[in-house]
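As a warm-up, study this chain.
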Amino acid sequence: MSDPVVNAQLLEYELKDQWGPWRFDTPRLCLVHEQISYEIDLERINSCAEMLDWIFQIQGKVEIYEAAEVPAAFADIFKPQANCCSFGIEKEFSGSSLAKKYAKELADAGFKSWTLPL
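Now compare it with the structure written out below.
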């Protein structure tokens, strides 16, 4: 029988800077909907409640299939199970620190920096 903890450590994830119409604006640390210029400031998400608030808030702003991409982006950027709320217990975390760390991972992997054109 395999050890689920060991197996979880072996899982790799694909680095992304885009989830559907949402892009990670690395210089400004925002998640931006490209078509409607709607943005989520990742530096201001410092609790699970704030993260959940954004998930529900955007459902009234965009199509449901587009809204479904935001939790996927949060999962990649914040890695909530490890950093925010393991075993149902909320941890202290900094959205700014986690977004900066993810931006660095993207840069180290050769992703080009992207920002919303004015």
